[in-house]
Amino acid sequence: MMRYIFSLLCFLADLSLYAQNDSVVNALEEVIVIADKNVQQNSTGYKVLTLSDSIISNNRTSFTSLIRFNSPIYMKENGAGGVSSASFRGTSASNTAVVWNGININSVNNGQTGFNSLTVNLIDNIAIRSGGGTIKYGSGAIGGTIHLNTTLPFGYFSKHSLQTSLGSFQTLQNRYKFANSNTRFSLNFGIAHNRSENNYKLLSTPFENVNGDYENLNTNFSFAIKTSLYSKIKFYFTNYSGERGFAGELPNPTSAKEKYQNFNNRVLSEFEFSKNTATHTIKFAYLTQEYRYFEDRDMEKYDFGNSTRRLFNYDFTYTFNNSTSIESFSEYDSNIGDSNTLQKHHRKQFSQALIYKSEIGTQILYNLKVRKDFNSDYDVPWVYAFGAEYHLSEKLKLRMNGSKNYRVPTYNDLYWPELGNVDLIPETAKQAEIAIEINNKQLQLDLSFYYIDSKNKIVWTPNGDPNRPNKWIPINISKTLNKGLELNLKYNRKHHHHYFNLNLNYAYTIATDKTKKKSLIFVPKHLTNLNLAYGYRRWNTFYQFLYNGKVFTSEDNIDILSIAAYDISNIGMEYHILKTSKQQLSAGLKINNVYNEIYEVSPRRLMPNRNFNIHINYKF
Amino acid sequence: MKINKLIITALTFGVFATACSEDTIDITQGDYQGGLLISGEGSGAGTGSVSHVAEDLSSGTNFIYKTVNDKELGTFLQSMAFSEENAYITVDNAHSITVVDRYTFQEIAIINTNLEHPRYMAVVDNIGYATNWGSTSDPNDDFIAVIDLITNTVTKTIPVGMGPERIIAHKNVLYISHKGAFGTNNIISVINIDNDTVTEIVVGDRPDELFFDENNILYVLSEGQTIYDADWSVTGHTTASISKINTTTQAILNTWSFAEGEHPSLLAMDGNNLFYFLGTGIFSFDKADTSLPESSTIETGYIYGMSVKNNRLFTLQSSFTALSELHAYNLNSGAETGNIKVALGASKIYFN
């Protein structure tokens, strides 16, 4: 093994440019203790994949590439740093919910989250939950949810973390995090700044990526106080402001001029009271989103959109005995949105959910959930979900779930000038999943099979409304069937000072339009990613691999309108200059796209060539 | 690395040499001579493209530019113009005009400087005149790019009113319909190409297709505009019309006005007949008629492109998420004579 490490070092030393990445592999030694409690508690029978701070740190350049290299989710991205969205199990982008500390933050305008219009540098922990039945996080997540969590542990510690990194294409990232706590108080603060010219060479063309620059600033501030033996107050605040160009596409990328700015503020306060068998949680959230779109960045003129959301919820859980509980969840959600072309619309929704959890013997855990929404804009159906786990042995578990979900039409679908359709009804989907999990000290395996049957999918259709000829109108039209399997395999080995870690995801997806009998566009049949890490004393190295199968871009599935399959590899290493319990100083290098692969994830938009990133990380 | 470069260079030369020698064998003809060329705008699903179809629609080839040149044209392919030997492909979003041999589709040049949202081009001798929207954030920077077709460069620009669309040349005079880009306009610009003087004729809102007949009379279709209130509810319409214009006096000789709320599109001319699309069908009338027809000649469903030649009608049932369909009809019998799959977002039909 050391021989390989040695040759790797020589290889690196040979490169004239030391650029690089990040702090690699503390992941190996780190025990992940804080998978979001709520996500786990609500996910009996579902698959939850957790990304720790060190994985996030290894992939800090973009949220999109973090998800792309570490989960079974397919990311559709309009070139590196462009508009980006996530698709679980062949479902659409608006079927993926992004949940920040328990609050669904998808835009009310397009129902999605732009994965390049937020950063994850300051997020402590990300949980990825596949499948619907997300009851408490809103009903729209037919495909799954991505949870961004801030952790606020109690205990005596104080930790500063400073990270700076410099990469190709004038990419500069700086991050400072501070956490402080005692037994009654916990504080978490962070500030991160990223900027890049992102002007990589478009391999095989005379051009470079034009107008793809970005810059953003993110601040987090959170704290928790134990006010008494039974009660806790938590407060979370985050502010984000970002600006980026939308890069030009081939064959003439030089003409690109578009610019996009977005500003988000999110405040969440939470009060929890738990005594004996009863737990009460009250949450209040206030969220604002604003975007500005400049068609021509040299001009003052821009389009804009704003939304303000107020959310109030109350959760009451009563536990009968140690194993059975009933939970009531009530929520009021008020959402006001407008844009330069859309008048103010105020959507109000009241939701009530009931969750029953219990056990049969010691081997079977199960839960039943129902939710009903009352929406000011349209009627919404009941949704329900169940999940169950059967522990065959300590190491072997069967899990299954089923649910009915719906996704409400977005403001764009309903109210887009000239084109919106106020007669739309929610999309609905029924799904089921069965899986096997193997867990032992070194090896963890999760293999699941799923089935999602959707109808009344909203599709923007030319001449969709006969009364509005020549216009593209969103209508409830398509029926789809998605089925497939997901595999996650983890292997950890520690021997003396050697650490070895493997993490593999594989997704096989068959997603079909039932009427057209064709594959859905932008769904790869095969998707796999692999992360290998090896550490020895103060050294850490890692290797990342991604294979993304061919995707069709046209509904008739013709080859000439498809994006070819690609595979890319990244490598990285890190050395701990200081490694004591009080201070850790490390420096590292990451090489992305080591083999200088020419590939695209979106038509006519080539992705970055081989590039480098160096970082220094200091914790004290 | 260097060796790779050498090999690539050597290969490239090889390919060039082969391509050139083939060219010299076959100077005037090509695979795509005769028949129809269909241009498709493209969309998020794929590139703008050109299809070649036999005139009886019995066979066709899609993506001919990409097949020949192993390159994409980009989105959105707005239109094509022709000289005797070349085709000029205007791609709006790529801010480019790609010059190809009209019969082989071998690329000759790409003009991509001094163009901004180019739309349509007219050719007069060795000069091209291309309408450009300029920045869509600025209503006052729209222009005609004057292109030297020998060097394939823009030599000068002529400022015009907002949203210039179609352009045709008639006896050293250019006629340009101003549909208004993302807004609305209602003028025809008239440019004398000897001295670049611009005059304007006011017509109905949103003028698009325009044609000359053999008597030097200009016909223009104005689609009319839908008026919305702040909540995007329809509060009214401006009248759509077809204008008949004497170009010597610039006087409007006749106006065929449509009923309130009707928004016709896709004007075509064949002999003495004018054709347009409204609702779900094609209407036709003789240019001597004083009133518009009451019922359609052929029901086609929604179409996005149309052409008429020698009493044969060609329509495009366009899809922007998959290939489109070209349909042909015999106007005497009203019968459909064929159909074939063509370009993504197909919008224009040309006879090659």
Percent of residues of chain A in helical segments?
A: under 10%
Say what oligomer this is. heterodimer
Total number of β-strand segments of chain A?
34
How much of the residues of chain B is beta strand, in percent?
over 45%
Q: Average pLDDT across residues of chain B?
A: 90
Alpha plus pi helix count of chain B = 2
Distance between the termini of chain B: 45 Å
Largest interface: A-B, 35 and 42 residues
**How would you describe the shape of chain A?**
globular
> Order of strands side by side in the largest beta sheet of chain B?
3-2-1-30
Rg of chain A, nearest Å: 24 Å
Secondary-structure-derived class of chain B:
mainly beta
Largest sheet descriptor of chain B: 4 strands, antiparallel
Shape, principal axes of CA atoms of chain B: globular
**Major sheet attributes of chain A:** 22 strands, antiparallel, barrel
The helicity of chain B comes to under 10%
Derived structural class of chain A: mainly beta
Q: Treating each run of at least 4 consecutive H or I residues as one helix, how many helices of chain A? A: 5
Write the layout of secondary structure elements.
The complex is a heterodimer of chains A (620) and B (352).
Chain A: H1 2-14, H2 37-41, E1 47-51, H3 53-58, H4 63-70, E2 74-77, E3 84-87, E4 96-100, E5 103-104, E6 125-130, E7 144-149, E8 157-167, E9 171-181, E10 185-196, E11 214-226, E12 231-245, E13 259-275, E14 278-294, E15 303-319, E16 325-339, E17 345-360, E18 364-375, E19 383-391, E20 396-407, H5 411-415, E21 427-439, E22 443-462, E23 472-495, E24 498-513, E25 518-519, E26 526-536, E27 539-548, E28 551-552, E29 562-563, E30 566-579, E31 584-592, E32 600-602, E33 605-606, E34 611-619
Parallel strand pairs in A: 4-7
Antiparallel strand pairs in A: 1-6, 2-3, 4-5, 6-7, 8-9, 8-34, 9-10, 10-11, 11-12, 12-13, 13-14, 14-15, 15-16, 16-17, 17-18, 18-19, 19-20, 20-21, 21-22, 22-23, 23-24, 24-25, 24-26, 26-27, 27-30, 28-29, 30-31, 31-34, 32-33
Chain B: H1 2-25, E1 36-40, E2 49-53, E3 60-61, H2 64-69, E4 77-82, E5 86-91, E6 96-101, E7 107-111, E8 118-124, E9 127-132, E10 143-148, E11 153-159, E12 164-170, E13 173-178, E14 187-192, E15 197-202, E16 207-212, E17 217-222, E18 226-228, E19 234-237, E20 241-246, E21 251-257, E22 265-270, E23 273-278, E24 281-286, E25 298-299, E26 305-309, E27 312-317, E28 323-330, E29 336-344, E30 346-351
Antiparallel strand pairs in B: 1-2, 1-30, 2-3, 4-5, 5-6, 6-7, 8-9, 9-10, 10-11, 12-13, 13-14, 14-15, 16-17, 17-20, 18-19, 20-21, 22-23, 23-24, 24-25, 26-27, 27-28, 28-29
